[in-house]
């Protein structure tokens, strides 16, 4: 008997609608605590709670499915052997008959409730049928039976990284599943070694850790040099690291073999846009939308003066305490992040950030050193130890900086919102106003000294 093989998906994080998020990155400049908001928010609004009696359930369950037997010529009262059911499920899955594969897998799970193969095949069939909640439960059961099974770990990683709605928690969970799978997979199974390494790379990109991601993607290509998905994903990692020329060559290589690769077209357009090559950028971005309109819808059209007016109106409508903290702080609108802002941090900020805070937090004093902005400790001040320097986020901050020899002063505080990146995350003006307000609140959090973890926990990532 054999399992159906689930290949890692090509869905990757970009700033386009329907794609995965990118999280903010660390900074290098110890005297500037800057903050960047991710290219998409992660947390939905909290549900309102009341003291009223619980309402009747109004959601209707899907109608019962008609009976489909794995072997149509076999009467319903006569069970097929489990091994035959699993082999047939794999064959139907390979033929893209996912409903048939599900029927075979479900018959197998009824006969062999502890069969890892049966639950695995059921899970990946449900994934292909977009029944993701059921797939998650089936994967969880398979992992409860065999926590170190590489095939099931691969499916669990793919579900969390590429299939379910994006979140930091799901990317982190998928990363750990992929890592565990990499530890337990046979080195002789080079294709699965490559797929698991690629899944690690995808999750690390989603978590804003593109340097680590590049290492794992290179590991995937070492195991399988012709792995097209890994070639593309390497371009994404290079793009996130602001290595635009290297990324451009990689996407052009992808497009040479797959001219309608929507994600490669999109990223190539983003690079050309940054380089001021507007006709080429418009051509490639339009081609990406034509190839995959769901992932890359046509962005809202709003000129820079109109966008700036939306930003100023959003500032005026912020709560009183937020507007007090913004007193004297410049709030600006720009088309795209400046490359000097992006590469001022190590690793660089993502080119798809929605906003940025430049400067020192409000509670900065001459006896505090701002932690480099990024995934660990963005904008958070730490006392300087008696030895005269503080090790923050892997970067040494000297005593001279702690005593006032800074690259900027506390008055050089600015919040910038990026028009083109924001417009790509919304469908209409109402959504844009919400996104602007959310981005402002995120950056005000950095102004107040919060790091990305705190903001994420408050639903402001």
Highlighted features:
461 residues; 4-stranded mixed beta sheet; two-stranded antiparallel sheet
Poorly predicted regions: 8-34, 37-57, 369-408
Biggest sheet architecture = 4 strands, mixed
Percent strand? 5-15%
User: Globular, elongated, flat, extended or rod-shaped: what is the shape?
Assistant: elongated
Give an overview in words.
The protein has about 450 residues and is an alpha+beta fold. The chain is about 50% helix and about 5% strand. The protein has 19 helices and eight strands. It has helices at about 80-95, 100-110, 115-130, 130-145, 150-165, 170-185, 190-205, 210-225, 230-240, 245-255, 260-275, 280-290, 305-315, 320-325, 340-345, 400, 420-425, 430-445, 450-455, and strands spanning about 35, 330-335, 355-360, 370, 380-385, 390, 395, 415-420. The strands form three sheets. It has a four-stranded mixed sheet with strand order 1-3-8-2. Strands 4-5 form a two-stranded antiparallel ribbon. A two-stranded antiparallel sheet has the order 6-7. A hairpin with a 2-residue loop joins strand 6 (about 390) and strand 7. The longest helix is centred in the last third of the chain and has 19 residues, at about 430-445. It starts with about 35 loop residues before the first strand and ends with a helix. The relative contact order is 0.15.
Draw up the topology in text.
Layout: E1 35-37, H1 82-94, H2 98-111, H3 116-128, H4 132-145, H5 150-163, H6 168-184, H7 190-206, H8 210-223, H9 228-240, H10 244-257, H11 262-274, H12 278-291, H13 304-316, H14 320-325, E2 330-334, H15 339-343, E3 355-358, E4 368-370, E5 381-383, E6 390-392, E7 395-397, H16 399-402, E8 414-418, H17 419-423, H18 429-447, H19 452-457
Parallel strand pairs: 2-8
Antiparallel strand pairs: 1-3, 3-8, 4-5, 6-7
Helix pairs in contact: 1-2, 1-3, 2-3, 3-4, 3-5, 4-5, 5-6, 5-7, 6-7, 7-8, 7-9, 8-9, 9-10, 10-11, 11-12, 13-18
